[in-house]
Design brief:
The complex is a heterodimer. By secondary structure, chain A is an alpha+beta fold. Chain A contains 2 helices and 6 strands, in the order H-E-H-E-E-E-E-E. Helices cover 27% and strands 28% of the residues of chain A. In chain A, strand 1, helix 2 and strand 2 form a beta-alpha-beta unit. In chain A, helix 1 packs across helix 2. Chain A starts with a helix and ends with a strand. The mean pLDDT of chain A is 95. In chain B, helix 1 runs parallel beside helix 4. The mean pLDDT of chain B is 92. Helix content of chain B is 35%, strand content 20%. By secondary structure, chain B is an alpha/beta fold. In chain B, helix 7 links the parallel strand 7 and strand 8. Classes of the chains: A alpha+beta, B alpha/beta. At the A-B interface, helix 1 and strand 6 of A face strand 1, helix 1, helix 6 and helix 7 of B.
């Protein structure tokens, strides 16, 4: 259940931003969580509800952007969609690739009152 | 200005107009705080030429037995220190302590992984000596510890032949982020339906750069390869 640590990390980031902006709450938060990031959204939602209670994010609208998994083959250069991090190049079947999208895990923005 | 469409307002859209002055662009990695502390740990290891290894696996793959055997065999040639991570008990630390090695136990309580902050505090008490090898035995869990950099130089994933040979495909994140895979308990191969070749193929499919060593920490078979790997990596750490 590392999703709870993830959620608490987000609250920590929001806390610092609230202090900088001199506000006591945010109306919304935008996260970027890639499809290959290793975060289960169902677990995350559950952890999120617990983690934001009584914090600057309590009652803030949560928006999650989900970049899809994409890889680029290091042997033939082919770019291909990935569902799993062990997906192989569909063109030359090489195991060697760069994951170009889907590993994102960041706080994009916070919305003030 | 509206941040959705960039217009100056004054007309209607199907989206809500949000004033850009109300948006704080954060663009910060969620694991930023952990990663900062991991880099701090890494700096400490570099300065003291300590080779730090993060051992990860599912519960029961034999991480502690592998360490016991390693420490017993090599403690006269290499200085070691160990950080043990478990939810509860000091059982593993007691086993390591019995080999005469410096050890600190971290109990994570309900936590399912170690993070860089816990390791940072453990180091303050442990004070590993220069040019030593520090093993961090993570909580037995192939999922959560994958996301948390502790500042280690290499991540070592241990799997055993009593598990399925499809483990790398079931828990790809851990195998993807590891540098070395130790396949343990090979003395049991005649008794279990485990294919070493399939396991290696699956592991390399997830991570083609993964090094693989087969050992039995019980009989000692293959352990020399693991020891050679440790010695080479320790030498490289001291030379940088």
């Amino acid at each position: 259940m590392h999703e709870l640590s993830i959620a608490m990390g987000i609250v920590e980031i929001a806390d610092k931003e609230a202090l900088k902006a001199g506000v006591s709450k945010f109306n919304g938060i935008e996260l970027v969580i890639g499809e290959l990031s290793g975060v289960e959204l169902a677990s995350f939602d559950f952890a999120w509800q617990q983690a934001i209670k009584g914090t600057v994010l309590d009652a803030s609208k949560l928006e999650i952007i989900r970049p899809p998994g994409m890889g680029k083959c290091l042997d033939c250069g082919c770019e291909f969609p990935m569902q799993q991090i062990y997906d192989i190049c569909p063109s030359c079947h090489s195991y060697f690739k760069d994951i170009t999208s889907g590993k994102e895990l960041r706080v994009k923005s916070l919305l003030l009152d | 200005m509206c941040v959705s469409c960039g217009c100056g307002g004054g007309h209607s859209h199907d989206h809500e107009h949000i004033d850009s002055s109300k948006i704080i662009d954060v663009e910060k990695d969620i694991l930023h705080q952990n990663n900062l502390l991991a880099e701090r740990n890494r700096g400490y290891f570099d300065a003291k030429e300590i080779l730090c290894l993060n051992l990860v696996s599912s519960p029961g793959s034999g991480k502690t037995s592998l360490l016991e055997k390693t420490l017993t065999d090599l403690k006269d040639t290499i200085p070691f220190a160990v950080i043990e991570g478990d939810q509860q008990t000091t059982n593993d630390a007691d086993r390591i302590h019995a080999t005469g090695t410096k050890v600190t136990q971290i109990n994570t309580g309900k936590g399912c992984h170690l993070d860089a902050h816990m390791v940072y505090h453990a180091l303050q008490g442990l004070k590993p000596v220069s040019e030593s090898i520090l093993f961090i035995e993570n909580v037995g869990n192939l999922v959560c510890p994958a996301m948390f950099d502790l500042g280690e130089k290499y991540r070592v994933v241990v799997m055993s032949v009593t598990e399925g040979d499809d483990k790398p495909l079931k828990y790809p994140d851990m195998f993807y982020s590891s540098h070395l895979c130790v396949i343990n308990k090979i003395d049991l191969l005649p008794y279990v339906p485990f294919s070493i070749e399939k396991a290696k193929e699956n592991a390399r499919r997830v991570n083609p750069n993964l090094e693989i060593i087969e050992v039995s920490s019980l009989t000692g078979e293959g352990m020399h390869q693991w020891y050679d790997w440790l010695k080479v990596k320790q030498q490289q750490t001291a030379e940088v």
